[in-house]
Amino acid sequence: MEFQKHVKVRQEKFGAVVFETLREKIFVTNESGAQILSLLQAGKEPEAVTNELSSMYDGDPAVIKKDVDEVISTLQESGIIKN
Amino acid sequence: MIENELRPKVNEFEIQGTNFSDYQSPLFIAWQLNSICNLECLHCCEEAGEIMPNELNREEVMDFCQQIVDLNIPYVAISGGEPMMHPDFFKICEFFRSNGISLKVETNGLFINKEVAARFGKLGFRSVQISVDGASQDTFEKMRIKGNFKKVIEACKFLVEAGVNTEIVFVPTKFNIHETGKLIDMSYDMGIYGFYTGKIMQIGRAGQNWDILCPSAQEYEEFFKVLTEKEKQYAGKMKVYYYPYDVIEELKYRLEKPSASLLVIPNGKTKLIGPLPFVCGDLRKSKLSEIWNDYQKAWKKDEVISFTKQVIENPELLKEANKWREL
Question: What is the CATH number of the domain that holds B45?
Answer without folding.
Answer: 3.20.20.70
